[in-house]
Design goal:
This protein is α+β, with helices and mostly antiparallel strands and 432 residues long. Helix content is 69%, strand content 12%. It has nine helices and six strands, in the order αβααββααβααββαα.
């Protein structure tokens, strides 16, 4: 019995260790974060439902082009027969059953039927553009959160390295102060303790920043908050001039394509409004059956067909008011298109300048880091030989920490800046 219990415990421990190792080995790439967000994000799901609704409206608009067949039936019971007795012509029987079929085909509706169908198809295309815009916005948000996790994680490492260096320096100053208790040595010790405490605060701040970044990424992607993420290859920036980038944006931005489709819808709406006030012609045919008890002279099976014409004569200025509103909506759509065009130019310009700026900063920070690292190594070596002061060590340590932190920030900021530029021209995760 004890052998069996021991075997079960060992198996459970192995399973737990395997599960823990598998969880630890779960590393997510940026592409996987993209896919997770697109599959679960509510904003994308709402836009997808908008596409479904728009496609349904196309089917609805198509039905108005085809003929409509309507069936009807009714049974009526009367309390008495009219005329009573033995009248020659009965116009109210005791019971009556009626049934019929009516087929109606619109022949001319002022162009509004086909205009409504074209409008529904245009709105369907616009809904797909809106879905693509929502997807790109989410992708940029995910990329921003993803790189923020990488940045925060790297800053934790940098802060811990700085704390480790300050702790080592503090031990040296404690040893010197214990052997030679001079005012200068005590001052160095107090300063070393202060800087070590500040380095510890930097570690705590960096760790909290990492927690917030992980939580934000989890909200966007539904990935676990402790999910490990891997470094993606640096995205290549578009190698075009600013004017060419603006042109590419107008060609590829889905929101710009969507607003132009909205302008087309506004134009079709004028045709729809006008068509509603034009003469309407319908072809109509039907079959009608009537059976009464007692029988009347109207009991029969009747077939009929013909044309039905509707002409609006006086509507109190309704057509003028509706057309005026439709033309106003068209002007509004044109203004919205021009406003978005100017905003796109601004977005591309800002993203372009931001990328140029952060690229320049990154190159400068790389040189700054190399100088700071070389200076720290040299000063540390001289301090060990008694040729450099403790103040020089502190200054070199602080300079190195600042340079490391700026290098981390600039490195990841540039990658995000590249993605922002791709988003501004409508090519995030797209091929030119």
């Amino acid at each position: 019995m004890k052998i069996i219990q021991g075997t079960v415990i060992i198996v459970l421990l192995l399973l737990f260790a395997f599960a823990t190792a598998s969880a630890a080995d779960s590393v997510y790439t940026l592409q996987e974060a993209y896919d997770a967000a697109l599959g679960t994000n509510e904003t994308v799901k709402i836009a997808e439902e908008g596409v479904v609704q728009a496609e349904s409206r196309v089917d609805q608009a198509r039905t108005y082009i085809f003929p409509r067949l309507t069936g009807k039936a009714g049974y009526t019971w009367y309390n008495k027969e009219l005329p009573p007795g033995d009248g020659e012509f009965i116009f109210q029987p005791l019971e009556q059953f009626q049934a019929g079929l009516v087929l109606t085909q619109p022949l001319y509706t002022g162009g509004r039927t086909f205009a409504a169908f074209r409008t529904a198809k245009t709105l369907s295309d616009a809904s797909r553009k809106q879905l693509s815009t929502s997807q790109q916005d989410i992708l940029l948000g995910v990329a921003d959160a993803y790189f923020e996790v990488l940045k925060a994680r790297k800053l934790v490492d940098v802060s811990r390295d700085s704390l480790s260096r300050m702790e080592e320096y503090k031990k040296v100053t404690e040893r010197v102060a214990s052997t030679r208790r001079s005012k200068a040595n005590m001052s160095d010790l107090l300063r070393a303790r202060t800087l070590a405490s500040q380095a510890g605060i930097s570690v705590v701040t960096a760790e909290n920043r990492l927690k917030i970044a992980r939580q934000r990424l989890s909200l966007l992607t539904r990935l676990p908050e402790d999910a490990a993420v891997t470094e993606p290859p640096p995205p290549a920036p578009p190698s075009y001039s600013l004017d060419r980038l603006k042109q590419i944006a107008f060609e590829n931005r889905d929101d710009y394509a969507g607003v132009r489709l909205s302008r087309k819808v506004a134009e079709e709406n004028i045709t729809i409004v006008k068509g509603a006030h034009h003469p309407q012609i319908y072809a109509e045919g039907g079959l009608q059956y009537q059976d009464s008890r007692p029988a009347t002279g109207l009991d029969a099976t009747v077939y009929y067909g013909g044309l039905r014409l509707q002409i609006p004569i006086f509507e109190g200025g309704l057509m003028k008011a509706e057309v005026s509103e439709a033309r106003s909506k068209l002007r509004q759509a044109e203004l919205s298109t021009e406003l978005l065009r100017r905003n796109i130019e601004t977005d591309v310009y800002e993203a372009y300048i931001s990328l140029q700026t952060v690229t320049t900063v990154l190159e400068s920070v790389k040189l700054q880091y190399a100088d700071a690292k070389g200076n720290f190594d040299a000063v540390t070596s001289l301090f060990a030989e008694g040729l450099a002061s403790s103040l020089a060590v502190i200054d070199s340590q602080q300079a190195l920490f600042v340079a490391e932190r700026e290098l981390v920030n600039a490195t990841y900021d540039r990658q995000v800046a590249v993605l922002r530029l791709q988003r501004s021209i409508g090519l995030l995760r797209k091929e030119l």
